[in-house]
């Protein structure tokens, strides 16, 4: 296994975390990094032993075993068209891009979607990152699954269509959740209160749904449809967009309750 | 300290958790429980040693040291009017009710607001629950602070007005966040995927803001204003209310980014 080689196409957060896991956990050797941005390509190559870097998709070498495309969704198809055809296993890591973006460009291709949010300065234990795999044939799917299992203890096969829904759910669970944190932080900061007082509440909110469904875990004035509090709170919000969000999410919480 | 007595007015989740902490951490003796609902009053009294229970606010005894009102916001003022006047320290635990709900009813009164979400079946380490206190005089404030410090390592003095904003922030950080989990869970469940695959992502989203501000922690298509993904995802959502939320929260994330 130790002589398997990988080329990273992309050098952003997902690429950087995945490259590290591919080296340290799966034992692959990173031989080349492509990024449109020289600084990013060089930074990832330098932290990866003897890898070289390039800013030219056409200069990607053709003799590697695995090609991992970790690019923004809109860049992916264009770069995939410019990388020279080869016999390697082509994988992308995007939630909302169908596997067949590689069709006609590679013979063996698939998807390895790690469902996690990656930050520049936080290391992530890849064993605990659910990885969703897909391959262009049953044989390739097996190959991708085998590779993913060297990274993570939680590997699932998933179609491109279902992966798109999973990605949509991840936007709610991560980005939208984080936006709720940002709005909460803004409200307390405007009163001179440090946003860190909210952390135990945020932690417990996340911890609760390990035991309860989100519907069971819900509390608060919207769930009780406590109009006095709801009206008083809405009136405290100055930003009209945030006020509308407050009202719509409160309605949504109550609507969810009525369904049960 | 061990002979201090407390009456709980209310027997819901906050009352139950707080009663336990007042007994086990602060060493108070719970002597009586009032709840409009006999079943709740009896349940809390029974798990609290030799406390008696009542469903009549007028029957609340007058010789206790501390009276803790843990009621829904709209019930609080009415019950406070019916509890017989006495010389005890009256406290409520509500985020959005001003301290002066007790004015004219008690001589020594204040607020002890624990900022946490409590579930029936999850125990909470009260030492880590930020508690926000207020008193009708400087002397009473000291009394409430002293009591709160026997429960929690994190006690802050806060005015009624600021507490209302903190409660509003808590609604975003907890209830609205949990609604995002519920929507995410609904999206994956509709595809036959178990919602538990989202948990590592949810946990990491919460953990990130211990190191980064929510604004720094943000990722995803809305932040990049990646229109192709945003349009594709919006089109996948059937429920018009959820679709509108998707679009408004996405706009909010991008607007937050433009502010920086």
How are the elements arranged and paired?
2 copies of one chain form a homodimer.
Chain A lengths: L4 E5 L3 H12 L4 E6 L3 H9 L5 E3 L11 E4 L3 H10 L6 E4 L15 E7 L16 E5 L2 H14 L3 E3 L2 H30 L9 H10 L5 H4 L9 H10 L3 H20 L1
Parallel strand pairs in A: 1-2, 1-4, 2-3, 4-5, 5-6, 7-8
Antiparallel strand pairs in A: 6-7
Keywords (chains A, B): NADP
InterPro entries (chains A, B): 6-PGluconate_DH-like_C_sf (IPR008927), DUF2520 (IPR018931), NAD(P)-bd_dom_sf (IPR036291), Shikm_DH/Glu-tRNA_Rdtase (IPR006151), TM1727-like_C_sf (IPR037108)
Pfam families (chains A, B): DUF2520, Shikimate_DH
List keywords for this structure.
46% helix; eight-stranded mixed beta sheet; homodimer; 2 domains; N-(1-d-carboxylethyl)-l-norvaline Dehydrogenase, domain 2; 260 residues; TM1727-like_C_sf (chains A, B); 9 helices; Rossmann fold
What does this structure look like?
- Two copies of one chain form a homodimer.
- The first copy, chain A, has 260 residues and is α/β, with parallel strands linked by helices.
- Chain A has two domains: 5-158, NAD(P)-binding Rossmann-like Domain (Rossmann fold), CATH 3.40.50.720; 163-259, N-(1-d-carboxylethyl)-l-norvaline Dehydrogenase, domain 2, CATH 1.10.1040.20.
- Helix content of chain A is 46%, strand content 14%.
- Chain A contains nine helices and eight strands.
- Chain A has helices spanning 13-24, 38-46, 73-82, 138-151, 160-189, 199-208, 214-217, 227-236, 240-259, and strands spanning 5-9, 29-34, 52-54, 66-69, 89-92, 108-114, 131-135, 155-157.
- Chain A has an eight-stranded mixed sheet with strand order 3-2-1-4-5-6-7-8, covered by helices on one side.
- In chain A, helix 4 (138-151) links the parallel strand 7 (131-135) and strand 8 (155-157).
- The radius of gyration of chain A is 22 Å and the shape is elongated.
- The first copy, chain A, starts with a strand and ends with a helix.
- At the A-B interface, helix 5, helix 6, helix 7, helix 8 and helix 9 of A face helix 5, helix 6, helix 7, helix 8 and helix 9 of B.
- Chains A, B: Pfam families: DUF2520, Shikimate_DH.
- Chains A, B: Residues 3-67 form the Quinate/shikimate 5-dehydrogenase/glutamyl-tRNA reductase domain.
- Chains A, B: Keywords: NADP.
